[in-house]
Amino acid sequence: MKLSTGVCLLISASLLAVMAGLLWPFHSPKESVEISEPVKRTYIGSMRIDNQRFLPEYEDPSSAQFANLSAQVGQQLKLIYSKNSVLAKYFNHNSIQAFSEGDSGDDSIVVYYESEFDVPVPQQTSLDEAIGSVEPPTGSQWDQQGQGLQKPTDTLNISSITAQAMDQRLTTTPLAERKIFNIHVRNPGHVHSPGFPGSLYPPNINMQWRLRADPGHRVRLEFHNLVLENNCQHDFIKVYDSLAPIEKHALTEQCGNPHHSLSFISSGNIMLLTFVTNKEKNFPGFRAKYSQIPLTNQSCGGALTGDKGLFSSPFFPSNYPPQTSCVWNIEVAKEKFVKVRFKKFFVGSQSKRCLHDYVDINGERLCGSDLKRTVITIKSNKVTIKFNSDSSYVDQGFTAEYEAFNRPDPCPGRFQCSNNLCISKSLQCDGRNDCGDNSDELNCTCPGRFKCSNNLCISKTLQCDGRNDCGDNSDELNCTCPGRFHCSSNLCISKSLQCDGRNDCGDNSDELNCTVVLQQCSTFSFRCRNRHCINKLNPECDGVQDCVDGSDEADCECGRSLYRNTRIVGGEASREGEWPWQVSLHFKGLGHLCGASLLSDRWLLTAAHCVQDTRRHKLSQADKWEALLGFNVQNETNEWTAKRGVKRIIPHYFYNKYNNDNDIALMELDASVNLTQHISPICLPSSTYYFPSGRDAWITGWGSTMLGGDSATLQKAKVKVINSWFCDLFLSHTVTDNMLCAGVISGGVDTCQGDSGGPLSVANPSGRFFLAGVTSWGNGCGLMYRPGVYTRVTNYRRWIKYKSGL
Ligand code: 4AZ
């Protein structure tokens, strides 16, 4: 559970009120009049009525039944307020918002209401206290005379009542101007912000969607797109486990462009989505899918008795529902101990006592997202694990695996990390964080190497190379470039490369402030749609309009990752949504065979050698392939993943299976996919786009890792574009002009079998990725002086346009 900004606001409002109250006697009479001016204060509340059956008509605020019950509730509320002198004095009016079924399925209903008061600022605190202390009326209260109120004919049996000041950002719009939609989610559908996806949302919105499922069901709401202003005080969405915006039932508040799970599940059959924007800065908005799931579908907890197994929080990778508890009893063979490893862990906010949402292992509570130890060993063959979520602020939850181990040594012959992971001893002090908590890289001496401020050891040749190899930048401090040009990126390059029309620094700083302007069309000129030439290197989608007709900045909805890549490492696991154009191609009966890149909502680009018939398998048949999009871990589907069949395969007509020339193929999907933050295309470079040698490039795929075997999680690694002349030399004159080499000359980082067809992705200075190559072939994998070979995509730009129209 997180402390919400709404709560902070309330606290500061109350503090202001107290301060104002303290200062009041010292103000001049004029000021005191101003301070005492009444202001509107809105409370949102709910009450439970025990002797009323929920009628379907209560879902419709314009029905006679709704009006009738609202009148009764309004009268009761008035009576309740009349019993308290503060409430009675400042009360203005009530408005009944909605009704829902009581959660136990008996004859009870819940009423949601708003009460408005006009109160002088100094009295706000006492009003807050008064409203917080209201209680259901007792029978005798109706009998008292002199209140001006009659006992209603059908007395409502109120069993509980609560109210809180409403989130002030929701009250800036008058009730009448709020747009409220009542939706039944029995048939799945979508809600979206106004204008989405064609235009930006308008200013000053205050919208609510009340979502109801059938009794005995939960509401599920999954955001597939969410791009709002980055300041939640201005624009935000908020989801509640209620039909009214009651803070103690808030499930989440989001703004900006979040990348964690945005799938929410209610505890009962209701949910509320609110969307508020202020008058400035408008963004694309959101689209979310609603549906219902039977309450009985939750399967969590139970007895686990095998030697190893998996378990996870309910509905993972969706956020867990509020008010949920699960208990797992693990019991392994008597002579063994149990080890539990949390693979993912996002359970509320970190706090000392984990009072809200938590996992409990034999009495020890875990919460937050940054576990000190991800592996927990239990010196027993039995362990009880509990999961608990409270009524507000949910999170993604956890996945865990448990394993029985032989008692005394949890890491026989290996290094035991502080988080209890076991790794090979040879990985200690190798400059990489193999444990995940860096404990394998502590207390290392660095003979013959550079010692970073964070104690990592790196090769001395990496010092002052313009890159943050240490992770804390200490290898790039105190660097100078005597006699050379000092790029803004800290690289040192030859002065002769300044103003040569090429971006040698990587950040273009060697091409700024140049007086010579190249005029004529050259091999590197970009041709605008109006056929004008732009003599700037790689002007497309760089955020600056260079063509008068804007064509260099058109069609730029591509190449954006949810993450900015930071540290340089060998092969490591990608994060969900990091490579949204990466596709896994499955051949029926064989599983994952090749990678591919998403070019649009219908088209993929892969390698021609992936779709050549073999003696046993007809790999050229489109209907035998399946494309998996938005995947990070093979076979792990979630709300971000999609599967499509393949309608058509177009291999290059001149693919040469003897020398791998023209190793490129287009695939058309049988149905278009929804483009989301996890499924989005990479930018196609124009035929004149230049990927210079030495440029950083990223390889990605589920293919064989250096340790052998395919990887379940999408792997990524940073390599460099390698000079074609040298590459041809390294690979014994087998590299054609249609190929581009990339790798690490010293070996160890490379694509391999199973990565074929996947992307070689290169970022432009603004962080947008372009498809430089299609993984094609190599002389082995990861060998020294044997870079990987990729199909040079720029040579096929016209072929792609001709075959797919893109
Ligand atoms: C393959 O067999 C393969 N090292 C792909 C890439 C590379 C080697 C082999 C590059 O599909």
* N-end to C-end Cα span: 46 Å
Structural class per helix/strand content? mainly beta
Major sheet: size, sense and barrel closure?
A: 6 strands, antiparallel, barrel
Q: Taking Cα atoms only, what radius of gyration do you get, to the nearest Å?
A: 32 Å
Give the neighbour order of strands across the main sheet.
Answer: 38-39-40-43-42-41
Q: Which range best describes the helical content: under 10%, 10-25%, 25-40%, 40-55%, 55-70% or over 70%?
A: under 10%
Overall number of strands? 43
Strand content: 25-35%
Ligand catalogue: 4-(aminomethyl)benzoic acid
Stretches where pLDDT is under 50 for at least 5 consecutive residues are 1-34, 142-153
Per the principal axes of the C-alpha atoms, what is the gross shape? globular
Mean pLDDT score, rounded? Answer: 85
Number of helices: 7
